[in-house]
Amino acid sequence: MSIKKKAIILSLVVSIVLMLAKFTAYFITGSNAILTDAAESIVNVIAGSFAFYSIYLSTQPRDENHPYGHGKVEFFSVFVEGILIFIAGIIIIFKSSYNLIYPHAVGQLLQGTLIIGITGLINMFVGLYLIKVGKDEHSVTLQADGRHLLTDTYTSGGVVLGLILIQLTNIIWLDSLLSVLVGFYIIYAGYKLVRGSVGGLMDESDFTLLEEVVEVLQNNRHNPWIDVHNLRTQQYGPEFHVDCHVTLPYYFDLNQVHREISQIDELINKNGFRKAELFIHADPCLPACCHYCHMSECKVRAEAFKQEITWTPEIVIKNKKHFENELL
Hints:
Strand content: 5-15%
Oligomer: single chain
Number of domains: 2
CATH superfamily of the largest domain: Cation efflux protein transmembrane domain
Largest sheet: 3 strands, mixed
Structural class: mainly alpha
Strand order of the largest sheet: 1-2-3
Number of helices: 10
């Protein structure tokens, strides 16, 4: 079993146990704030179940109907999780607003506070673990689930502080007010997950990933690689795809072009970000490229080398050779 599957199973089991613990705390105390935290745990269980299925599906090999694999299902999983969190926040706000107007008594807050505090700590450790594994395995689902559990930790911390304040002041309506505030925070957390998943589904550029690719190319550039432009990245679950144009000397034969392109492919895949699939289009150089070309022994050079153009994300994403960028 892969480490991703083990991590999401751990998350699911922990979410079920903590959900039962939080509802026990609610039945003991009758606190709306604790009910808010318990209700979010239901979302944790549902989202964890869907996340497990999405991770299972994302690890399936490519087939005729899915030539790029099944990795994008992870973005859909994050979208569903965000929507569930968003809905839970709205329900919590409405119920708590009602109880703010018509408050009811709460009891045994000390026991409830201890239970919520312990569940919050457990969620924090599991959430940090999921985020670490998600980053190592390049899984947006695990990272989203980890951030969700950290959100649950923050809400549990807020609930604990609120319950302590209620015990100190004996102001009962603070319970519902705290629940409303937590509900708004939960809605915000859900919005961030939905926003990120939609960006992934629409192939929104990952600027951090782009910077990593450009840095590797810049630090290991070969003289025949005169410039790199029209560079784009797409992520499909644990895999990502890079396509770009590389300007090479126009007199290179097909074998030489293939060798240079293969070296770029090997370079990206050996620098440890993740498994990458590259689509590289070779462009022939023009006389206007000579002043930034490192091919010192070139027999057709029309102009002396003047200055290297440092590859940056802002330069390489443009669909123009570097001398054309200089004219802008």
